[in-house]
What we know:
Chain A is mainly alpha-helical. Chain A has helices at about 1-25, 35-40, 40-65, 75-90, 90-100, 105-130, 135-140, 145-165, 165-180, 185-190. In chain A, about 45% of the residues are buried.
Amino acid sequence: MAMTKNRLEAFSDGVIAIIITIMVLELKTPEGETIEAVLPMAHVFLSYVLSFVFLGIYWNNHHHMLHAVQKVNGSILWANLHLLFWLSLIPWVTSWMGENHFASQPVAIYGAVLLMAAISYYILAHALVNHHGVESSLGRALGSDFKGKISVVLYALAIPLSFALRWAALGIYIGVAIMWLVPDRRIEKILSPD
Amino acid sequence: MAMTKNRLEAFSDGVIAIIITIMVLELKTPEGETIEAVLPMAHVFLSYVLSFVFLGIYWNNHHHMLHAVQKVNGSILWANLHLLFWLSLIPWVTSWMGENHFASQPVAIYGAVLLMAAISYYILAHALVNHHGVESSLGRALGSDFKGKISVVLYALAIPLSFALRWAALGIYIGVAIMWLVPDRRIEKILSPD
Amino acid sequence: MAMTKNRLEAFSDGVIAIIITIMVLELKTPEGETIEAVLPMAHVFLSYVLSFVFLGIYWNNHHHMLHAVQKVNGSILWANLHLLFWLSLIPWVTSWMGENHFASQPVAIYGAVLLMAAISYYILAHALVNHHGVESSLGRALGSDFKGKISVVLYALAIPLSFALRWAALGIYIGVAIMWLVPDRRIEKILSPD
Amino acid sequence: MAMTKNRLEAFSDGVIAIIITIMVLELKTPEGETIEAVLPMAHVFLSYVLSFVFLGIYWNNHHHMLHAVQKVNGSILWANLHLLFWLSLIPWVTSWMGENHFASQPVAIYGAVLLMAAISYYILAHALVNHHGVESSLGRALGSDFKGKISVVLYALAIPLSFALRWAALGIYIGVAIMWLVPDRRIEKILSPD
Lengths: 194, 194, 194, 194
């Protein structure tokens, strides 16, 4: 049933590619021909860069996880669509957060979307492990999924924090991104010893 | 002629991925930095969630049906494009229905697009069965296509109903979605006994 | 070098899928909750349907032609990009023609984009035949390319005609579409005798 | 690990296809039904054509380079995402440059995005060569990467020049595009002697 897995990958790649690219549309053409017309967009631009990195991380991790998958079923297809749903909200909260210069409530909502994406990724990972068995190469590769669990905890902490210390909440989001950017050797080691 | 089938799948995946993602663009950036600026968008958001689920169902079913396909011809390519045409109208009616808080006429038009999508899916399924024969694994898997037929009947009922009882019409749409979310064991059982 | 051909197909499919879907964004959400708010969009909608059919024809023909291709080179990649360039202008002229209720000048420009697309398709077809040889299955399948040549002539006639008799020009566009919708047995017969 | 390379290609193709197509959305529907309504868009249109060619070149070169790749790792995935990030900014600077009739500051920023894209392509190429070895077919095919280096130098020269002689800066961008359009025989010769 390799076809099914391939089509799941292709569809996910397509959706993530569109999400990551569509965010550019939120970057409105500056009104005026000078650099000064661009400077007020700095917040929107930084917000865009952060979301680009998050979506890149999700694509990267999704890619590694699916690489180890041998079979999928209906529940997995829907767990995957559930993840894509939350990722598809990222351009919208990115734009809202950027245009409001990282005000506390948009920062909280941004964190809520990241939290839901992290939870839906966790659900997908566990649906895959259940389908393959914890003793499968996929099950061993995911292991205790420490990074996945700590991400959920950190987002859940950052959301209330954003009302008091919004820059601290943003710092947590950036910290989670950096944690994931450090290559996840677990899956890579076990599956690709070449 | 596996290539042809693969390209039909890839193109359909691409179009459905774009449709499902483009709906996000209908979610306008809230004006104002507080949650109150987001609350008036609740109708648009619910409308978006409903359409996301419908498009997910179509992708899922399309994927299962194509999995069983061995060959395609010109009529099938056009039956498929016909389905994609109606699906491509979903973001437009989704936005119209949401922005008008599920008023009766947009709800009716939304149902009309769902009806046409269901009919075009039916046409595609039957073009595929004709090409493979009713005794093929595809023909047996689709069987009497009860869900497909009942969906068409329910949409046809919901459209006039939306002028009198628009919430009942919406309830029917949601009911049809739930009916399809219950995994379609027919095709899965016959084709993927692994 | 099958990889190269596959990637050319995948890229072309992606671009055509995006073009065909992005046209929906030109369908603005009606202002008002009644059917009357939708009726003024009839011209835009018809314009959209016509372009959907044209893009579907291009995808279909491109698909059949590429199916017979065995190798590609740099010139072919650029001939293909040249075709995609003209196709990518279709949403723009579609919207302009629809919003101006098929006024003569937008109808002429619409025809000019169709003409350039037809010419670039012709160039691509001949670059492919040159690379494979006229005695190749691709060369024999394309044959005299009557439909391709007559399309160019008809578009070239329709453009000046649109200033005098714009509905006749539109009629020619529709006629060309119908001519192509009649399945092209040439390639299908020679290559897929299954 | 062919799967990984294929998915990298598919994702990159998807993103570049979306970027190249989304630029059409920047072409606003002319207000008015005459050709005169279109003429003021000439700058935007030329800007669009230039960017279409640049994105086509990137797709073409990316395609050739990846063709020679046998394996990828985490650094390569991120080097590729880094390239896609800069490419995704092209529609935004294209629109800004066109709407301001090639004013000096937008021309400079446009060059800056091209410069960053060229640098990120250089980083990707070298990450790939490092992973395969300079004696690999990929390493030999890229060779001294003269075109890549000279492009970076030319963009770096054009950016300050655009403040004094903006047409000269634009001329340099066009010159670089032409240099790349001349087919790169290096990789094609070594890898595809068919």
